[in-house]
Design a protein that fits this description.
Length: 351
């Protein structure tokens, strides 16, 4: 019906109770209705005869006229509409996609919480979407969990199985139990620059920025490093710690990060000889420590993530067992959890 509110002002009262008018001054008060300044036409986003104009619901599922992405929701507004990417997707609502990493998730959605998220590492290319655990709080956030070394009673990270850290792409464990031995497919696919280690149960952290150059995944980076590394000139010249709560404490020689260290019991010739009597070399990440032969690089398997060389005097089967060590946490006496119960562990995140 129509009701005359003032001279020359015609207003339609719909069943919804909204007042519809063609006058611009009324539009400012009741924006669900609009007409153009030219008589006989409605403003964009409205329809009608130019005198009475009704908002177009572009989001009406029966006749949608919006251009929102299929992974977005549409919200009608007076004279227009808004597109908002659904949870787990990032973009402007017209373009919505899974983030390619936890780092991108943090950049595009600063409020994203720590937990399991879905990423699409290669965009719309053949690799399937992947659920990963993202730490969005520590050291600037955006960290993707790629590996866990845990004293869970399993012999996973052994010298015999060291290709699990390089060419063997089999995933290990479950995201639902990332206190146990674990390896995400992202370990072999996600390009990285920075590395973060988190020891539990202490919560001690060590961040290393610029370890990678952003063109390699962690497995390719590690596989390109010789084994064993016996260059003493690297002492105190590894990848420097750039963040975290780890501080230099004996028996650590420094807080730098190293990889694939041989054991410097005495001469370099013994370090390079993996069959030498007490060459406790390791594979993968490790820290420089002093033991019976002092600093640097003495018994690196005792500060690594599990792999232990089968030295000449080592018990038979040493290379098939994990060294009972969880990185810097073990040598600093921080493995206070129940042994063998997945309470002592170190998590490797990349970004």
């Amino acid at each position: 019906m129509y009701q005359l509110l003032s001279t020359g002002l015609l207003t339609a009262v719909l069943a919804t109770g909204m007042l519809l008018t063609a006058c611009q001054d009324i539009l400012d008060v009741s924006p669900v209705v609009a007409a153009s300044a030219d008589a006989g036409t409605c403003a964009d986003g409205y329809q009608g005869n130019g005198t009475t104009c009704v908002d177009i619901d572009e989001c009406d599922p029966r006749e949608p006229t919006h251009d929102c992405n299929p992974n977005a929701s549409c919200s009608n507004t007076p004279g227009s509409y808004m597109c908002t990417c659904n949870a787990g997707f990032v973009g402007d609502g017209v373009q919505c996609a899974r983030p390619t990493s936890c780092s991108e998730l943090g950049q595009l959605d600063p409020g994203a919480p720590t937990g399991i998220h879905t990423i699409d590492i290669d965009g719309n290319l053949p690799m399937a979407e992947l659920d990963v655990y993202c730490d969005m709080g520590r050291e600037g956030g955006g960290w993707t969990l790629v590996l866990v070394s845990s004293d869970d009673g399993q012999a996973t990270w052994t010298m015999d199985n060291r290709t699990l850290m390089t060419t063997d792409t089999r995933p290990i464990g479950s995201l639902d139990a990332h206190n146990r031995d674990f390896k995400s497919p992202a370990y072999h696919a996600l390009l990285f620059r920075d590395v973060l280690f988190v020891h539990q149960p202490s919560g001690l952290t060590a961040e290393y920025e610029g370890v990678g150059d952003g063109t390699q995944s962690f497995d390719r980076f590690l596989g390109a490093i010789p084994y064993p590394v016996c260059d003493l000139s690297q002492a105190d010249d590894g990848h420097p710690q750039t963040g975290g709560t780890l501080v230099l404490t004996e028996p650590l020689c420094d807080t730098d990060l190293y990889f694939n260290l041989g054991d410097h019991e005495s001469a370099a010739v013994d370090c390079n000889d993996l069959s030498a009597a007490y060459n406790n070399a390791t594979f993968g990440p490790t820290w420089s420590r002093g033991n019976n032969y002092g600093c640097p690089f003495d018994d690196p398997s005792s500060s690594g993530l599990g792999p232990n060389n089968q030295c000449g005097q080592c018990p038979t089967g040493t290379s098939a067992q994990e060294a009972n060590t969880r990185g810097f946490g073990t040598i600093l006496g921080l493995d206070t959890g129940m042994p063998g119960m997945a309470e002592n562990l170190v998590q490797l995140f990349i970004r």
